[in-house]
Amino acid sequence: MTVTIYHNPQCGTSRNTLALIRNAGIEPQVIEYLTAPPDRATLTALIARAGLSVRDALREKGTPYAELGLADSALTDDQLIDAMLAHPILINRPFVETPLGVRLCRPSEQVLDILPSAQQGPFAKEDGEVVINDKGQRVR
Questions:
Q1: What protein family does this chain belong to (predicted)?
Q2: How far from 118 is each of 2, 25, 50, 94, CA to CA, in Å?
Q3: 124: CB partners within 8 A, 6+ apart
Q4: Is residue 40 part of a domain?
């Protein structure tokens, strides 16, 4: 069983998602996509399998989104993918791929829907928000 996270260690949501995967007893393949970005086929497949539009997978905050004029609705998906490949910081994160599907895990708890193993203990996000109780159950 392979679980892959497209991770940015500087991102709290990405760190929380990785920690939830590990709390399920899974050591995922960690791809730091800023230094090892996916190729076009992989990125396109991740977006499609997550059920997102290309625009939904674009990150605006802390990126050259505005400077590159990416808000222009006339831009095609191919043009947006080109921008994401040229500037991987534009790829929203974290994408997680498991045998049960692909999700853009924002918020991080979305990873729970596609993990093949249950949580093994309590879990709180870095900000202290409890996500998994002491019985390993999701807190809503």
A1: Belongs to the ArsC family.
A2: 15, 8, 21, 20
A3: 130, 131
A4: no
Note whether residue 105 is domain-resident: yes
> What tokens appear for 66 in the block?
């505005």
Q: Nearest-CA neighbor of 34 among 54, 56, 63, 65? A: 63
Which member of 3, 5, 11, 47 is catalytic? 11
11 is catalytic: yes
Number of structural domains, the chain? 1
pTM over 0.90: yes
Establish if 106 belongs to a structural domain.
yes
128 class by beta-carbon count within 10 Å (0-12 exposed, 13-18 middle, 19+ buried) = exposed
101 φ, ψ to 5°? 140, -170
